[in-house]
Amino acid sequence: MDVAIGILVAIHMIGWAIVLGGSLVSVREPKIPLGMLHGALTALIAGAFAAFLAIAASDGGGPDHIKLAVKFMIALVITGLVWWGGRREKVERSFVILIAALTVVNIFIAVLWR
User: Where are the transmembrane segments (predicted)?
Assistant: First the structure.
């Protein structure tokens, strides 16, 4: 089970890397490429499956449910923003920076919240 969770976490991190990289590249010419939506959906789905497996594999001392809920809500907001921005021809620079900032916040929560 640990291998499956590890693979899902790696896919989850790759998805967020795609979102963060896409948003940083898009700051110069503010638009949301389709790849960012794919990255956000990949991160959201892989993270949800990794969390479900981690909870199922635990015997009471599993992952922090509050942390997972906070991360999931931020991931939903990021995915929604990327989806909404992707439907627009052009977005504001601050919109792209918001997506990048929320992605970094989600990463910091994952790493620093113990």
Answer: 6-27, 34-56, 68-86, 95-113
Tell me if 44 sits within 8 A of 15, measured CB to CB: yes
CA-wise closest residue to 49 among 16, 1, 99: 1
- pTM greater than 0.70 (yes/no): yes
Number of residues assigned to the chain:
114
**Per residue of the chain (114 residues), what is the pLDDT tens digit?**
899 999 999 999 999 999 999 999 999 999 999 999 999 999 999 999 999 999 999 887 788 999 999 999 999 999 999 999 999 999 999 999 999 999 999 999 999 998
Helices (H), the chain: 2-25, 34-57, 65-86, 93-112
Q: Which domain holds residue 37?
A: 2-112
Count of domains forming the chain: 1
The alpha carbon torsion through 85, 91, 94, 99 (nearest 10 deg) reads 20
